[in-house]
Every structure is written in C-alpha cells, then in structure tokens.
Amino acid sequence: MGRSLVAFQGERGSFSEEAAYKLLGRGIRVIPCETFAATFESVTRGGANCCLVPIENTLAGSIYENFDLLLANHLHIVGEVSLRIVHNLIALPGTTRKDVRQVYSHPVALAQCSRFFAKNPRVERVTFYDTAGSVKMLVDRRPPGAAAIASRIAAEVYRARILATHLEDHRENYTRFLLLSKSDRVSRRANKTSIVFSTRNLPGALYKCLSVFALRDIDLTKLESRPLRGRPWEYSFYVDFAGNVRQDHCKKALGHLGEVTNFLRVLGCYESAKR
Questions:
Q1: Phi and psi, residue 103, nearest 5°
Q2: Close Cβ partners of 142 (under 8 Å, ≥ 6 residues apart)
Q3: Of these residues, 175, 193, 199, 261, which one is catalytic?
Q4: What is the per-residue pLDDT across 141-192, written as a single tens digit (0 to 9) for each?
Q5: What burial letters (b/e) apply to 213-247, b meaning 16+ CB within 10 Å?
Q6: Do residues 63 and 10 touch, judged by C-beta distance below 8 A?
Q7: What's the confidence (pLDDT) of residue 241?
Q8: pTM of this structure
Q9: What average pLDDT does this structure show over 229-247?
Q10: Rounded CA gap, 259 and 107, in Å?
Q11: Is 175 annotated as catalytic?
Q12: I want to staple 272 with a disulfide (CB 3.0 to 4.6 A). Which of 113, 136, 192, 257 is the partner?
C-alpha cells in the first residue's frame, strides 16, 4: 500500500490504528475520524485511499452500524485483519499503580476488564468516549491519580507509560476489521467473499437462498440480518463464504442466488485474516 492514507474511527492510538499497522505495515499514513460515517465518507470523497472499520468482536458481537454503512456506501472490501484486543493500564510518567484512583476508558473496554476492578475496589471506573481518547485526555488535563485503559499504540503515541497489561477478562478477545476501498481488486490469493442480498418474505425463501451454497459444498462463515429501512419486517442478509468469485462453483452459486433474490451485491472478495 506504500504511503497510502488510511482512515479509521477514533483518536490516534486506537485499536483501529493498531489493526491498520498489523495489516498494512508502518509505512502508511493514518487519518483519525470522529464517526464511522465520516470514516466511510473520507474514502468516498477522496480524502483517504482506504479505510479500516471494525465489523465484529468475539465478545461484544457485530458492529451493526458498519453493516448498514457497507450497504449505504459503494466501497469494496479488499482485505481483513483480526486483532487480539489487549487492554493496558496506562498513566503519565511518574504515576505508579498505587497512585491510581480513577481509570478512564470506553464503556465496552471497562466492562471487559471487570476482574481488574473487582480486585481493585478502591479504583473508580470512569466512562469516556474513546479508549485512546482517554489517554490523550490524561496528557492534556493531567488529572491526579488517573489512568486509562487503551492499546499499547496509545501509550506510544502519547508518550505515556504502561503500568499493567492484559487487563481483559477473556484472552480470546478479537476484533475483525475490514479494509475498504473505492477500487474492486481481487487477487489470486483471495479466498473469502462477502455479499449482501434481500429476498421476498415467503415460506422457504431464505432456505432457497442458502441452499445454493450447500448444493456446491461452499462453507458459510458468517450470516447476519439487518432491517431494511423504510420496509418494516423486511431484512437484508449479509453472508461471508469461503471461496473466490473467479472460481467456477462460486460463480454458479452467485448466479443461482441472483435468480432467487430481489437484490444481490458482492461486497468484496479478499484474503481471509490470519490470527
């Protein structure tokens, strides 16, 4: 990707930035955005070459807003990365663990570190809008006895100190991120495809849609439904499956699916993430 401009939601030092470096290397330049919508818009308007957005977490589940934004924006999934979420206790240089009386972070991060707070009942958890933003706040405001829970990249970006690591309750805490671009490029190594479709609300309609994959022994790795706006009790279905759209059996499955759906769109064909 060279010196590509990569947009992500959150402050510098977020887990999204860490994921971007894992997937694309340190040679990229990053553009932090305030919202997920702004992240997509930065690519559609040409401010960034691509963007990296979280799509699901092994503990918290799917990020529904980004499923909806995938449908609303005509960007293509060109890659993915799975990031092990490690929560770190971060403070200003000179602050020790004994000094800490308040810990700031995003509410999801705080909830994922409940054992730490149970073992340290004198430490108050304080919700903040962003994990990396909580570290930035420490540096800007310098509140006494305060620390934050965030990524190791946040400590690096804001020149803060990691007092403890692996605060998370569950080690199998991963977030899957999608790399999105205006261009639709499919490499020979691509082995995963994401699509979205809708079908009429009739008996057996979804069964017919999914059977096009079963008939060809195609493995479905993800199935998610989302309400269709303006059409009460109707849904769009997001599917990830193993395979490349250039493979004959995948082409036939998609052709068959197009015959039994109202709407079908290939969101991307890309190389699956490695843990």
A1: -125, 125
A2: 92
A3: 175
A4: 999 999 999 999 999 999 999 999 999 999 999 999 999 999 988 888 999 9
A5: beebebeeeeebebeeeeeeeeebbbbbbebbeeb
A6: no
A7: 98
A8: 0.93
A9: 93
A10: 44
A11: yes
A12: 192
